[in-house]
Design a protein that fits this description.
284 residues; alpha/beta; 7-stranded parallel sheet; 49% helix
Length: 284
C-alpha cells in the first residue's frame, strides 16, 4: 500500500456539494486527489494536491481519455475511486419520460460502473478501495422518488456483488448511504422537473397535483445535514484499517432504517402519513 502522503484518490462529481467537501477533506488529510468534473469551471477546492480532471460519467470515450490522462500524469496506482457523481430524476412514474429515466440510470448506475471499470487496474496496483455513494432512499423508495431510489438500489446491489468479486485481491468495496444532505442537487432536480413538466398536458399534470404538492410540503419541512458528514465517512472508508462494507450517514437515516425493516403495508401507511398523502381523498 502507498504511504499516506502519496496516496491518490479519484473523486467524480467533485464540483458538487458532497464531492467538493470530500475533495477538501482528502486533500487536508494528505491525499492527492483527481477531482473529476463534468464540465470545466466546477467549484473544485483549490489545493496543491488537487488536480481537476474533466470527466462526464456518461461518456465512454471521455472516461477512457481521463484514465489515460491520469496515467500520463505519472499516476501508477490509486488508493481510492469515489463514485460520487449523481443526479435526481423525480416525479410520478406514470409521467417520467423514458429518456429521463434512462438518464437517471446512465449517470448514477452505468456511469459509476464505467468509471470503476476504467480505473480498476490502477486501483488493483494501489491495493486500493472502491467507494460508491448511494443513498438511504435505496432501501425505502418514497413516492415520486422512484427513479433516484431505484438507481441507488441498483448501485447498492452492484456494489454488494463487486465486494465479493474484488475480495480475491483484497480490495474493499464500500457503500456510503447518506440521508438528506444540503446540496444543490435538489434545485437542479427541480429545474429538470420543471422542464419535464412543460412537455406534459394539463390533464396529465392534474392527475398527481395534490399528491405532489403534499410531498413537496412534507419535504420542505425536512432538515438536510451538511455535506461534510459524508466527506468524513468517505475519509473513514479510505483510511480505516478494516473499512465497513456500508456506512449510513445523517440523522434521518435511522428512521429510514427502521422503515426498511417494517412489513410493507405498515411502512406504506406510515410513509403516506408522513408525506400527508393520507389526507388526500382517494380518486374515484
Ligand atoms: N444531497 C443529498 O441529499 C444526497 C443524499 C443521498 C445521496 N446523495 C448522493 O451524493 C452524491 C453527490 O450529490 P450532491 O448532493 O453533492 O449533489 P450535487 O451537488 O449536485 O453534486 C453532484 C455532482 O455530480 C455531477 N454530475 C452530474 N452528472 C454528471 C455526469 N454525467 N458526469 C459527471 N458528473 C456529473 C454534478 O455536476 P454538474 O453540476 O456539472 O451536473 C455535480 O458536481 C450523488 O451521488 C447523490 O445521489 C446525495
Amino acid at each position: 500500500m502507498q504511504d499516506e502522503q502519496t496516496r491518490t484518490v479519484l473523486v467524480t462529481g467533485a464540483g458538487g456539494g458532497v464531492g467538493r467537501a470530500t475533495t477538501q477533506a482528502l486533500a487536508e488529510r494528505g491525499f492527492r486527489v483527481y477531482a473529476a468534473v463534468r464540465e470545466p469551471g466546477g467549484e473544485v477546492p483549490r489545493h496543491p494536491d488537487v488536480r481537476t480532471l474533466r470527466l462526464d460519467v456518461t461518456d465512454p470515450a471521455g472516461i477512457a481519455d481521463a484514465a489515460a490522462l491520469v496515467r500520463s500524469d505519472g499516476c501508477t496506482a490509486l488508493h481510492g475511486i469515489v463514485n460520487n457523481a449523481g443526479i435526481i430524476v423525480q416525479g410520478p412514474l406514470e409521467l417520467v419520460s423514458p429518456h429521463d429515466l434512462r438518464h437517471q440510470f446512465d449517470v448514477n448506475v452505468f456511469g459509476a460502473v464505467a468509471v470503476t471499470q476504467a480505473f480498476l487496474p490502477l486501483l488493483r496496483t494501489g491495493h486500493g478501495r472502491l467507494v460508491n455513494i448511494t443513498a438511504a432512499t435505496a432501501r425505502v423508495a418514497g413516492p415520486f422518488f422512484g427513479p433516484i431510489s431505484a438507481s441507488k438500489a441498483a448501485l447498492q446491489s452492484l456494489s454488494d456483488a463487486q465486494r465479493l468479486e474484488l475480495a480475491h485481491w483484497g480490495l474493499p468495496v464500500v457503500v456510503i448511504e447518506p440521508g438528506l444532505i444540503d446540496t444543490t442537487i435538489f434545485s437542479k432536480a427541480a429545474a429538470a422537473t420543471a422542464k419535464a413538466k412543460a412537455a406534459l398536458s394539463p390533464a396529465q399534470l392534474a392527475l398527481y397535483e395534490a399528491q405532489v404538492d403534499a410531498v413537496d410540503a412534507a419535504f420542505a419541512k425536512s432538515k438536510p445535514a451538511a455535506p461534510e458528514i459524508v466527506a468524513d465517512a468517505v475519509v473513514k472508508a479510505l483510511t480505516a484499517r478494516k473499512p465497513q462494507p456500508r456506512y449510513t450517514v445523517g440523522p434521518d437515516t435511522r428512521l429510514l432504517g427502521l422503515l426498511a425493516r417494517l412489513p410493507l403495508r405498515t411502512r406504506d401507511r406510515l410513509l403516506a402519513g408522513v408525506m400527508g398523502l393520507n389526507k388526500i381523498p382517494a380518486a374515484r
